[in-house]
Specification:
The protein has 147 residues and is mainly α. The protein has one domain. It is 90% helix and 0% strand. It has four helices and no strands. Helix 3 packs antiparallel against helix 4. The longest helix has 58 residues. The chain is elongated.
Amino acid sequence: MKKIFLAFTVITTLISAITLTSCQSSAEKVQDAKANVQNANEQLQDAKQEANAEYPQFKKDEETQIAINETRIAEIRARISDSGKAPLDGLRKKRIDDLEARNSELRSRLYGYDAEHSDWVTFKAGFNRDMDKLRDAFNDFGNDLKK
């Protein structure tokens, strides 16, 4: 009986000691939270600096693509005006106007991006997705003209 009581006492003491040493005081929890916030702020600043460094080249590349799109729009307009097929030309002009509007919208989004207050990764992914859709629309339109 003494052995059982002694074992129970030792186990209880060990569990109590582990529990007490593993618990943090509220001051330690506050310190840990402050350290986590500081770390998160540093990571945010690093991400902003990375975005600020990458944006000028991205902007230059996309400005070039938008200018290419404008040239393609002008070429398509000239080709349609030469064809002389009135019903198809009306539909094609409407599609060209849509392409031109989408291209202009992309340009204003590109110039409206605020590197200090926007999420660079989300902006870049969305912009690239929309640019790819516009590129596909140009390709579809080009295939339509060949028919």
